[in-house]
Every structure is written in C-alpha cells, then in structure tokens.
Amino acid sequence: MTQQSNNVVTQDDEIDLVALMFSLWKRKWTIVWTTIIFAIGSIGYALFAPQVWTSTATITQPQMKNIVNYLGQIQQYTSIGNQYTKMPSYLFDQSWLFDKFKNVLLSREYQAFYLKQTDFYKKALQSGESSHRILNTLFKDIKINKFDAKDAPVAFNGITVSFSGPTPELAQTLLKGLIENADNYAKQNIFENQVARVNDLHAGLELELNRIQENVKATKENKIQVLEQALQIAKKAGIKDYQPIEDANGRSKPSINDNLLFMLGERNLTAQLESLKASPYIYPTRYYQIKAQLDALTELTEHDKPVKFQTYTYQDAPSYPVNRTKPKRAIIVVAGTVAGGVIGVLLALFMNAITTYRRKEDLSK
Fold first, then answer.
1. β-strands 53-60, 158-165 pairing
2. Quick check: helix, strand or coil at residue 55?
3. Which neighbouring-strand residues pair with 12?
4. Across-strand partners of 52?
5. pLDDT tens digits for 319-358?
6. Whole-angstrom Cα distance, residue 280 to residue 277?
7. For the whole model, what pTM was predicted?
8. 262 and 230 in contact (C-beta within 8 Å)?
C-alpha cells in the first residue's frame, strides 16, 4: 500500500514538473524578452554610469637624506650649549616628523581646506549643490589605511592613501596634491612651533641674564651704602687713619667686619668709596656665557627660515589607475542578464497561474 502511494506521488511530481516545463516553454518569449530587456538595460547602465578611478600611494617615514637640512637647523640651536637651548630629543626622530604629517593628512579640517582649493570642488560648487554635501561626498573618496604590526614589519611605519575620481588623471593629480600639501602644512606647523620654542629659549636666557645683572647691581649698591655709613661714623669719631683693633693680649686683629669698618679711617673709606663708585659692574663668568649664547641665538634667528625637507617618503608614488574601480561592467551585465532571466521565469509562472485560475473559474460556472 505504502509503495503504491509513493509511486503515485512520484508520478504526480513528474507530471507537475513536466507541466511546469511545458508552461514555461509556452511563455518562452516572455522569458526571452524580459531577459533581453534587462540585459540591454544593464549594458546601458554599465556604459553610461559615472566612472570611478582610484589612485593609490604607499607612504612611510622620511629617510635621512630627506631631513638633512632640518636636522642641521635643529643642531645649530643645540650646539649653543645651554639647558635652555638644548632641543628635545624627539625633534631628531624621523617617526615624530612622520606622525606630524599623518596627523595633518588624517585631519578632516585639512582635507576640507585642501579640497576647497581644487578646481574639481569649484566646478562641483557651480552645479548649485551645497558645499557641505560636496565635501561629504569627496571625503568618501579619500581612503587612508594605517599599517598594523600584523600586516607589515614593525620597522615599516607606513600608510596607504587612495583618492577616487571620475578620470585616471584627476584621481592621480588630486592624490598627489593631497599628500604634497599635507607635507607643506606639517612643515609650516613644525617651523612655527620651532620659532615659538626659540622665542621661549631666548626669553629664558634673557631672564637669567637680567637676574644676574640685578644681583650684581644690588650687591654693589649695598656695599656702597655700608661704606657710606662707615665713613659717616669715622667722621663723627674723628678717625682720620686706620686704627688697628687689639685683643685682650694687645695683639692686632687681622680683619674688620662691617660693623667696625669705620676703624679704617676717613681717608681709607673715602678712597674705597670713590673707587667703588667709579668702577664698572663686575659680573661673574656665567653672565658672559649667557651674553655669548644670546648673541649666537640672535644671529641664528635673524637668518632662520624654513628649510627644504620632507616629512614622508614614497614607498610607492601615486599610481596612474589602469582599471576602473567602478562600475564593473562585466559583473553588471551578467548580474542584469541573470536577474532578467529570473524575473522572466517568475513573470511566466505568474501569467500561467492567472490563466489556470481563469480556466477553473470558467469550468465552475
């Protein structure tokens, strides 16, 4: 019994499948024309859809030859030889310079600044579209990928930068401009920070110099005041010449402190006072060291200007795109044709179902 039932079901399935194939064959032109229409549509889209080309560059930290001038400029300040003029060690690090470049390149503020200078942006702006929308679209065309230690050797501190545009030439030009302007922007930032740092160094040395001058001046004025007071006491006491001081045993004491300076006598005190007032300030050795350092620093800053160097090195320069990023024409045509065939089959089945339903309705009447 069961075997007979299974045979009946199998026969019914075979009949349904044959009927299905027969109904599709009857509607073959529906399927064919639907497939053709979709194929033609996908070909048209593939041919006339906006083309996108992508230029890519791989960038790493600068080599020594790229920063020789920069290192020389920094070394000049360090060679002055003072705790104020000693430059931080990170300024000599290639990776620090490259980090400055990357920070600029990754900044949306910089990207917007750069894009607004391009003719491509200015043309897009003439279409009447808002600046905000144009920039958001262009931001999506910029791709910057950092290398992880898993993807590349630890020594390779690099990034991959790509820019997509409607033509190969434009994509390459925009990418070159993006990178080179980021380099200039970073160098300007570094130079301005250097100027501010040197100004701080100069101010520190000036402060120390002024402190020494004030101390020397205060010491001299204090000494003059002490001698003037001793001279007044000597005059009142009528002491004209030096009066030796003896101890209890009648021996002369070799030194006289400030309280007993009047014992030197009016003549000695007057001579010392006149000599002290006429003499120039006597500065310690440190004062002249600072003067020399300030002179050297001033000489450097007067001739200081941005030097030629790079904050990055190309591992691979911006490429000229050979293949379109999109549209992928072959994929679009194949996908469109397949979709047309599937929709054609579904349409044929739907039309067949409607026909069958109407026949049943007619038979039931």
1. antiparallel
2. strand
3. none
4. 326
5. 888 666 665 656 766 777 788 778 877 887 787 777 776 7
6. 8
7. 0.67
8. yes
